[in-house]
Specification:
The complex is a heterodimer.
Chain A: E1 4-5, E2 10-14, E3 19-21, E4 24-25, E5 32-39, E6 46-52, E7 60-61, E8 64-69, E9 74-79, E10 88-98, E11 103-109, E12 113-118
Chain B: E1 4-7, E2 10-13, E3 19-25, E4 31-37, E5 44-50, E6 56-57, E7 68-72, E8 75-80, E9 89-96, E10 103-105, E11 109-113
Parallel strand pairs in B: 2-11
Antiparallel strand pairs in B: 1-3, 3-8, 4-5, 4-9, 5-6, 7-8, 9-10, 9-11
Classes of the chains: A mainly beta, B mainly beta.
Chain lengths: 119, 114
């Protein structure tokens, strides 16, 4: 079963508008973390925002916010006031704890959403 | 946050040859990871590299094809051996910070095999 699901292969948004990129996840572990990354055409992975499973409040970083709905197992990324430079691939990822040592597991990535910002 | 320098940023290689990709982190990190991203696809973990032990490979990836070194807590290399056009991908290294919430990436290596 997919651990991270991004159902939107592509999205369009007009400049200055807000856009929501969907992400749902599947885990039975009570301790986990959710990440969003931006990948421009250059290929680098740029960290945007992180949400821990025990965090009471939704994470925010500038124009990025994470709409975390734990019961629904969703962690949608909201980008406010879109800019042309926001055009890129966006990946949702999850990390879980493994083993008795509590060390973090690898990141599991979704398939990504390509966002295109238009004038 | 950690800064990861990865090189080369891109290369075009002949089939049958090998390429070594280097990652340098500006602070000591326990775990480093190597990912492959085939064209139009998501990231797939190749292996986890811990200092002082053999790398742990994911299903479908073998040491003979992707040997990894981790000589210290700030450096790692990935070699793509006996390359074929199917190895054309972006290869990314990643490092974990002190906190569970930190996972940083290098700039990526865009490899084309001809």
């Amino acid at each position: 079963a997919q651990k991270i699901t991004q159902t939107q292969p592509g999205m369009f948004v007009q400049e200055k508008e807000a856009v929501t990129l969907d992400c749902t996840y599947d885990t039975s572990d009570p301790s986990y973390g959710l990440f969003w990354y931006k990948q421009p055409s250059s290929g680098e992975m740029i960290f945007l925002i992180y949400q821990g499973s025990y965090d009471q409040q939704n994470a925010t970083e500038g124009r990025y916010s994470l709409n975390f709905q734990k019961a629904r197992k969703s962690a949608n990324l909201v980008i406010s006031a879109s800019q042309l430079g926001d055009s890129a691939m966006y990946f949702c990822a999850m990390r879980e704890y493994v083993g008795d040592t509590g060390t973090a597991s690898k990141l599991t990535f979704g398939t990504g959403t390509r966002l295109q910002v238009t004038l | 946050s950690a800064v990861i320098s990865q090189k080369p940023s891109r290369d075009i290689c002949q089939r049958g040859t090998s390429l070594t990709i280097q990652c340098q982190v500006d602070s000591q990190v326990t775990m480093m990871f190597w990912y492959r991203q085939q064209p139009g696809q998501s990231l797939t973990l190749i292996a986890t590299a811990n200092q002082g032990s053999e790398a742990t490979y994911e299903s479908g990836f073998v040491i003979d094809k992707f040997p990894i070194s981790r000589p210290n807590l700030t450096f790692s290399t990935l070699t793509v051996s006996n390359m074929s056009p199917e190895d054309s991908s972006i290869y990314l290294c990643s490092a974990e910070g002190e906190g569970f919430s930190e996972a940083f990436f290098g700039q990526g290596t865009r490899l084309t095999v001809v």
